Here is the input.
Amino acid sequence: MKRLMLFIEPTSAQVNVFTQFTLPRLGSFILAGLVNRRPGWGARVFIEGHQRFHLRVWIEKYGLPDVVGISTITSTVKRGYALADECRALGIPVILGGPHVTFVPEEALGHGELVVRGEGEGAMNVLLDLWKDGYLEATHAHYAGVPNLSWKDASGCIRHNAMGPWITDLDALPVPDFTLADGTADCVIGRRRTVMVQTSRGCPFDCSFCSVTGMFGKKFRYRSVKSILEEIRRYNRPDHFVFFCDDNFTANPRRARELLEAMIAERLQFQWSTQVRTDVGRDPELVSLMKRAGCHTVFVGFESVNPKSLTEMKKNQSLTDIRKAIGVVQQAGIHIHGMFVFGFDEDNWETVEATVRFAREQKLTSVQLLLLTPLPGSELYQRLLAEKRITSFDWELYDTHHVVYRPVGFTPYELQRAQIYGHTRFYALLESFRKLVRGRWVAAGLSFYAWKINRDWQKGNQDYLRALATGSGPSGAVSVC
Here is the structure.
């Protein structure tokens, strides 16, 4: 009888732009694929979103798992810890992984036997070698040889093993099999099924508010074009939509061209979207090639229209770069989802007004106006922690929709209202109807949806808003290890 491993990706309790659409991260599926390669082991995945995970219901259907792996980001870790505690109460050992626990492993070891920091594939392969005859107790001395692992030895001492090398051969990793999630990973938007595909890892930039570099390194690593094509051919239907979840799809223009030309030659039937930086505006020919290959929308981290804030965050881009990129992408007929952040020390209400004005003048298809959030693992977190400006360690609030620190140019309540105000202005119902009348169907649909999310968020956070308004701050804070 095969031993069973279950991977769970918990969801946030807070309403956000992705509440209606489940877009799973790929780590759990890749790790499950590694497990399924091993004789005597089988793995399944559960993605919370459409459904809430119920351990006893899952056990009735599939049986008691031998091990549970839980992958979280900061805003979902509170739910992840609760699930871990529930599993351990039934005697099921738990491994925790993901960006949040990578940077606070001591905290995570209060809820799981083992914590994997950073990339999990190398550690998982070594763990599976150790478990060839069954799971070993978490205090076993053999765990000292597992890269990236944090654990407690027999004396109760916390051990942080050395980090292993970055994975260089991404082609050797399993292709994510979404059927392992029994439908919980399905994301259907406008009758099209959206699937996630990763073609690279890493980011050479080191923006002050981002933890990606600490998680995946500063050097880009790429999959081969052959490997990518083999994966996306399985989605080659007009009722599918692919999101290439790279941090910067066009970071290497020559490699991007090779992939795009191969996609065009394949005559792929689906449309796709991805993330790029503003430097894409330097290469109109490449952007035109993206459109020919089926690109529908690009997600761009513009971050700010305040030049001083761009310098503060070390974004390495200017307002001129932003304008040029918008012009080149729109000229190619590709939609833009622009992402901006409020709350840098150089920001004030003029920044908010200027951002909304800029986004409307540039006719961006959609925007996300996010609140600066000091995520563990980022330079920002360390700085605000040292300055004693973090006001809440309730990780559930770390979703870029709640103020969890003391800003400089606003009170906490003013900064929170800035986000609400910005979304209300950009997604005003009258403006949404104008987009509809002008035939901007995608922009209009997104606008109506965002208007509803903005309204629902305010209804669901009335107590939180009152606490900010009275100066008492967000409640439910937890201590940090």
Observations:
- Residues 475-481 have pLDDT under 50 and may be disordered.
- The two ends are 40 Å apart (CA to CA).
- Residues 308 and 346 are 6 Å apart (CA to CA).
